[in-house]
Amino acid sequence: MLEGEYIPVRLVLERLGDELDLKLVAGEGGLNNTFNTAELNRPGLAFAGFYEVFTSDRIQILGITEISFLKSLEPADRLQRIRRTFEFNIPAAIVTSDLEIPDELVQVANERGIPLMSTTLLTSAFSSDLSRFLQREVAPTWHVHGVAMDVFGMGVLITGPSGVGKSECALELIERGHRLIADDVVILRRIGKNDLSATASERLGYHMEIRGIGIIDVETLFGVRSVRDETVISLVIRMERWDAGKEYDRIGISSRNTLLFDCEVPEYVIPVQPGRNMSLLVEVATLTQRLKGAGVNPAEAFNERLQAELQRRGRGRPRIAPTAMNY
Whole-model pTM? Predict the structure, then answer.
């Protein structure tokens, strides 16, 4: 099983502070604590003394139930239970619903260097938003050489050897109204069992290298409608130089898949040769795959009609009795 990327608690505060009204209350020294799961935990059972299934590697969410339980305890008992729970070196704790935070919680957070934050949002809404953010941030990542495009609303990853014309093909697609996700370095994230999202690296952004011209900024040249931050990869186009001795698919009845990050993704292998309009071929492949996704395979439908016609003609043809001349 692929493990998620480790991220620091600081990232959560910096990226979601304004959006989720998240504020640091204590434990500033632990902002560099890291974790690698998008799952959250409610530590009510841990405060009650049951640690057998305590998932301490997750961010701990303290809502009305947890805070009410802590406030029902005597101060000395409350301090002891909080200390025992925080001995597990949890990455961070967040108090929701604008609840009053017990002084003992602040004290222990500072002692252990565990960030303690608060938000005005209700527990359910906050947990949902935080989980959605973390699912993307901690998802396992993989850097691949290629171009990611949004073509007719489908995420397309164009791969192939260096110099085969991937960027030039992408540039034509952009000119035809499609959108660039990333060029040269594509960051793939495993965001689900069979879902791969593609983004660009922050360093490269929406820049492309075009041989003979140099580095261009697609967003500046073609406008904001020519780029997109992220897409889910639904199709791989592998471009390769034309090999006269190789048999290429000319029918399209059978489907071909490739493995990306242990995810099966439909793949088309398109040979590159002078005079071939690669951007048009990528568009046709994308539309064809969209039809297949809807349960329609044009090649299969054509083959079925052809077979039916041959059978009809075969049944209508008069049979000839075998004679010596047949042999």
Answer: 0.71
